[in-house]
Amino acid sequence: MNQKKPPWYYLFLLILAGESVFILPFVLARVFRPTVLNTFELNNVELGICYSVYGLVALLSYVLGGPLADKIAPRKLMAIALWMTAAGGLVYATFPSYTVLKILYGYWGFTTIFLFWAPMIKATRFWGGTASQGKAFGFLDGGRGLVGALFGAMGVLIFSLFITTEISELTLSESRAAFKSVILFSSAIVVLVGILIWLFMKLEGDVEKEIILEKITLSQIRQVARLPSVGLLMIIILCAYVGYKITDVFSLYAQDVMHYDQVQSASVGTFLLFVRPVVGVFIGIMADRSETTIWLFISFVVAFLGSVLFATGIINASATILFFLSILIVASGVYAARSLYFAVMQKGKIPLVLTGTAVGLISIVGYTPDIFAGPAMGYLLDNSPGAEGHQHVFWMLAIFAFIGGIASWYYYRLYSK
What we know:
The protein is mainly α. About 80% of the residues lie in helices and about 0% in strands.
């Protein structure tokens, strides 16, 4: 397919939308995890179950939403997804009961996945063309990290502005009032991004028709399912996504082990988000200049080494420098893997026009951590409070990073030539 590469602002809009849609269900809880647990009166297991509900709905949404992305223009699906996700933020800001919160996460599983995920991946792959897949997905994930970091920083600023007492003396009602402002601000931004996507992420009519099919046949789905790259990417993404989910606990680690307060622990979560854009841009450029698949393998090795540092328990309240250095190592490995696992689709002989279908199939297995990772981490943390629980979580990461490394090495050997 001879395609004209879309302009740079097309990728910028993808980056902006790609993180904005996940701000409410994921980024706020990652940056403000102790605050979320406090204001919604949850424990780690209960929050994990909310993520499981999200994951169960998302699982079905991946299957049905993939083929849909091959039939409808990406910008239309993405804009509608952003607006529907923002509407859920209005419910979130009321600090609903645990039952309603689980329903809300199920709703977000539909809006962020069925309508959004596969269209975003397909549009990014289209922007990258045949020579810039590493840059396309590296810049996407890195840029999403920067957007998330900016949201996190603004969130921390807004939260602190609405606090009128000492952090240590903060009441539940004061925490809720401050966090509500963060939620409503985030929701408004998500609506605005949806408008930008609808208006400006347009392709020329003929180009748009080239990447859309009028009908998806069962034989086409079977054709994609039989590709070895699809099976391997299921394992690779599953392992990498477990690592990404585990980065959610860094702000809690800062509170439980390093003894930071709510604002300080949220700042740790925000620092983590700023690592992501640097890693994404660097790994994207390096991958296009050499071999994308070998960099995917290296990323798992780095994630494994970093997770072992935490798992051994050598990082405590007196090891501040080592704490941030170890965060940097784990984050570098995890974010590099996230940046590259869809960038190797072209190497794996997956047709561009069937990208949505392939993403749907891969994601059935690859994103199951949305179902089990949250409760698993919650159980490990609540069953062994303090440093010991966190060590168990990072041993979990080490195991998955090891398996992901093996799968990515095999992918490299299979498709390197």
